[in-house]
Design brief:
By secondary structure, the protein is α+β, with helices and mostly antiparallel strands. The protein has a single domain, classed as Roll (2,3-Dihydroxybiphenyl 1,2-Dioxygenase, domain 1), CATH 3.10.180. It contains 1 helix and 4 strands, in the order E-H-E-E-E. It has one helix spanning 13-22; strands at 4-10, 26-30, 34-39, 42-48. Strands 1-4-3-2 form a 4-stranded mixed beta sheet, covered by helices on one side. A hairpin with a 3-residue loop joins strand 2 (26-30) and strand 3. The longest helix is centred in the middle third of the chain and has 10 residues, at 13-22. The relative contact order is 0.34.
């Protein structure tokens, strides 16, 4: 089974979550500083970054 878990910066969790939802990802977890999205075996993890 293939597996990927990427840790990426995000400026806005809502905008990021909405974009990836169009690609079929759903939110597994979200706090003020961390968000995890999943689609099948793909997991993307985002951290808040400042502009």
């Amino acid at each position: 089974m293939d597996y990927i878990a990427a840790n990426l910066p995000a400026l806005d969790f809502e905008a990021t979550r909405n974009f990836y939802a169009m690609l079929g990802f759903h939110c597994l977890y979200q706090s003020d500083v961390w968000m995890m999205l999943e689609k099948e075996n793909l997991k993307l993890e985002f951290f808040i970054t400042q502009n």
